[in-house]
Amino acid sequence: MLLVALTGGIASGKSTVARRLQEHGAVIVDADQVARQVVEPGEPALARIAEEFGPGVIAADGSLDRAALGAIVFNDPEGRQKLNAITHPAVLARSRELFAAAAEADPDAIVVYDIPLLVEAGRVDEFDLRVVVHAATETRVGRMVELRGMTREEALHRINSQATDTDRFAIADVVIDADGTLEQTLEQTDALWENLRARVRGSA
Q1: 11 is in an annotated binding site
Q2: How far from the centroid of its chain's Cα atoms is residue 57's Cα?
Q3: 110 conformational bin, left if phi > 0, alpha if psi -120 to 50, beta if neither
Q4: Is 13 annotated among the ligand-binding residues?
């Protein structure tokens, strides 16, 4: 198995690259999706969140009330740390289970971990290859305003709350420039796939 981390800031084009790699045959493990799964009703992490932050963060149907939890931790760095201390280990454990299952199903699998906050999570060394999808700040702001209906201020706030481009470049083995056309991004992604396939064949 080849384990690849795919990261990039909000509206960088990372999802486009992930979809293309999946079309080629990569197994995609989506960190955001895993993060949602580990706080579903019946999951230990959800019980611990309710214990830590009170029953008010649980909705009437037993699911996590994200708005209520968000209101508590939004301006409380200590609260956010407590939340991360519950959710991050759960996400890590579930992700590793999915990696292992993919490797068992196909020892030559190319597993791509789609993780927006790779730098922030400090999990850089776990992967055979780290791919960063990059687009200029103005490009990303334009996408968020146009496609997600955000104001310019909201878009900049979201960008500034994540790791810097410099931080991401520092851990990158491969950078995909998604600042141009969709075709240019897909061409680079196709070239990356060929590179990954060659690596798997080389280690076989």
Answers
A1: yes
A2: 24
A3: beta
A4: yes
In sequence order, which residues have a C-beta less than 8 Å from that of residue 21 and are 6 or more positions away? 6, 28, 110, 112, 189, 192, 193
For residue 15, say whether it is annotated as part of any ligand binding site: yes
**Total residue length of the chain:** 204
Domain boundaries, the chain: 2-199
- Which tens digits make up the pLDDT trace of 61-110? 999 999 999 999 888 889 988 998 999 889 999 999 999 999 999 999 99
Q: Does residue 91 contact residue 46 with C-beta atoms inside 8 Å? A: no
Task: Give just the sign of the alpha carbon dihedral 177, 91, 83, 73.
Answer: positive
* Residue 164 predicted with pLDDT over 90: yes
Task: Tell me: is residue 14 an annotated ligand-binding position.
Answer: yes
The CATH fold of domain 2-199: Rossmann fold (3.40.50)
**Annotated binding residue 16:** yes
